[in-house]
Amino acid sequence: MSAAAAPLVLAIETSCDETAVALVRGSTLLAGEVASQVALHQPFGGVVPEVASRSHLSKIKPLIDLVLAKTGVEPGRLDGVAATLGPGLLTALLVGVAAAKGLAIGLGRPFIGVNHLEGHLLSPFCNDESGPPVRSLGLIVSGGHTQLVLLERVGVYRIISRTMDDAAGEAFDKVAKLIGLPYPGGPEIDRLARQGDPDKYRLPRSMPGENNFQFSFSGLKTAVRYLLPQLSGDFRADLAASFQEAVVDVLVRKTVSAARAYGCDVVGVSGGVSCNSRLRTRMAEACADAGLTLRLARPDLTTDNAAMIGFVAIQRLQQGPVDDLAADADPSLALAGDE
Ligand code: KG4
Ligand code: ZN
Questions:
Q1: Number of domains in the chain
Q2: β-strands 156-162, 18-25 pairing
Q3: Does the pTM of the predicted model rise above 0.90?
Q4: Ligand 2 centre from 140 Cα, in Å?
Q5: Strand ranges (DSSP E) for 133-244?
Q6: Could you say which ligand is closest to the alpha carbon of residue 38?
């Protein structure tokens, strides 16, 4: 299908604390807007669901109008309207799903309900340079999830492993809080770690077995908590760098060995933590050494966004007619093929 004939989709993402709307044609992002709620939740040190859904309600219509105005696209030209169905916070999901369904019904176009994790998983292929999604090993690494997923082809996925406790992003946020950095801590640790020594403090690497692909980050967080009272002076940059190195070590090693174990030549890395500069560098080096092709999500598509939701919707429309109007928002929606 030529780029001009590729479906045009308006997509909405409201699964957590970002209200996001995007207009996507094929693998081209025509416009994408994200209204971050970070400042609203910062005083609480985490996301407050009630605050999130109220903010989504006030932002959703202006963002849809803005995206359409920026591109000059008439709503009648849309081939479908998509929204994240789950997983996520129910009251937050409902706002995006209701808005998308309303628009789809009004326009007489299909509503496409998308799994948020499928959005992250396919996001490394959501740009004009990467080519379409191919059989690959995906690492989804975000604030809520840390999973290795075998992408057989679009719509056919197998969960290889997940975290047994905290997600990697959650560990970044909790350790940042312990050392007095603001929420969300991931980007703060990334920045601070650039001035630190990653070998200064030896922190644990969980479940090192060659064929153990499960993750666990709560022990690492606890190790930082016990180390803290023993430190004095200006230790924060070294601690941030040492903690980050421990997380990155585990993520890189398990991803590369899982790619080998499952016979994948391509590795895709996505989710908020995949924005981490050290992870991007180390994963690129390790994949090059192992002869693997690395597809990293574009930095602006790593944290929650609507472009990745629109991209999944387009893949589905290209496979055949879609009608998800009867599908409900589901806070614990499983990725297709979840075991
Ligand atoms: O994908 P995302 O926006 O939301 C979920 O689906 O969870 O990921 C947010 C997470 C937060 O934990 C945030 O601290 C982390 O991604 N994050 C980072 C970086 N940027 C965002 N973690 C480490 N380094 C970064 N540069
Ligand atoms: Zn996410």
A1: 2
A2: unpaired
A3: yes
A4: 9
A5: 136-141, 146-153, 156-162
A6: 1
